[in-house]
Amino acid sequence: MRPIQATVSLSALAHNLAVAKRHAPQSKMMAVVKANGYGHGLLNVAAGLSAADGFAVLNLSEAIDLREAGYDQVILLLEGAFSLQELKIASSYGVDVVTHSMPQLEMLEKSQLLRPIHIYLKMNSGMNRLGFQPHAYEAAYQRAQACKNVRGITFMTHFATADEEVGVASALDVFNQTTADMTGKSSLANSAAILRHPQTHVDWVRPGIMLYGSTPVSSTPAAEYDLKPAMQFTSEIIAIQEINAGESVGYGNRFIATKPTRVGVVACGYADGYPRHAPNGTPISVAGKLTNTMGRVSMDMLFADLTDIPEANIGTPVELWGNQVPVDAVAEKAGTVGYELLCAVAPRVPMRVVD
């Protein structure tokens, strides 16, 4: 069996949830566990985040998996239901739904549900992705209130720039002004807003990427927020090459040695979820020491510089990201974000869960 694996730490997940709670002590925690728990495994992360007040997912199947695993917290479908049948199933499982468009509202009005459902009525406060425009929000609220299938309404929006210098002031003003004369609870803050904008800490907050130990703010490392990596992505050296100045490694001669160089071949490639476009110099850890990748990432293998790690040999452990190499550091080199790398870990990679 190839030596590659991803290890998920339940204690790190619980720690990161506690960090979110420390920042927003008066708010309930809606842990975002969509995308198979950001690549960590849905039920794995639910176990680590069992102290959360609720879980937010994308697909109805995820909500059902959580319910059938015994989780009785609030469960929210972040894009709502996509059909009358899904709405009926959500109702039967006691799953809340985001309602962000008139067709979804009309579906609620015409559905025959076993029991009324709680909705999160979403406002478009500037993201221009999902949600009712502010000028149409009150009318949607009135229709939802009058709907026999709606047993409660939580107001909701999502911030486009909570992680940037511009902040959330404009969007928050739009939201507050629009809902000023309405009665209900609200859910506003994502991870970045939890950490940076306490004025958004209302009834519910929705921590996402911070729960997994990756930063939601590109200018600030996760460790500065006391976040711990929930995933350690590891492998081993499976071959070693000694090359001379002028020789290259891998496809396309992406790396050409300028001196005698000791090259370690690592059992990990883009088919495992490592970014193919990671350049020379991407950080990697071998035998507990930081070094760099070299050459182009292959489907099943990549290269690490062992020149200054003479003790490294075949079978020496490698960390692609995790405790020594922040996933955000790899993502920055690859021109992406930690979210993408965590979500991209391939199904063929064995996953181990530790306390």
Which structural traits does this protein have?
355 residues; 2 domains; 11 helices
Task: Summarize the structure in words.
With 355 residues, this protein is of the alpha/beta class. It has two domains: 10-217, TIM Barrel; 231-354, Lyase, Ornithine Decarboxylase, Chain A, domain 1. The chain contains eleven helices and 18 strands. It has helices spanning 10-23, 34-38, 42-48, 60-68, 84-92, 102-110, 134-146, 169-179, 191-196, 327-334, 338-343, and strands at 5-9, 28-32, 54-57, 74-77, 96-99, 117-123, 150-157, 185-187, 204-205, 231-243, 248-249, 255-256, 261-266, 283-286, 289-294, 302-305, 317-321, 351-354. The strands form three sheets. The protein has an eight-stranded parallel β-sheet. A six-stranded antiparallel beta barrel has the order 10-13-16-15-14-17.
Give the helix/strand layout.
Blueprint: E1 5-9, H1 10-23, E2 28-32, H2 34-38, H3 42-48, E3 54-57, H4 60-68, E4 74-77, H5 84-92, E5 96-99, H6 102-110, E6 117-123, H7 134-146, E7 150-157, H8 169-179, E8 185-187, H9 191-196, E9 204-205, E10 231-243, E11 248-249, E12 255-256, E13 261-266, E14 283-286, E15 289-294, E16 302-305, E17 317-321, H10 327-334, H11 338-343, E18 351-354
Parallel strand pairs: 1-18, 2-3, 2-9, 3-4, 4-5, 5-6, 6-7, 7-8
Antiparallel strand pairs: 1-10, 10-13, 10-17, 11-12, 13-16, 14-15, 14-17, 15-16
Helix pairs in contact: 1-3, 7-8
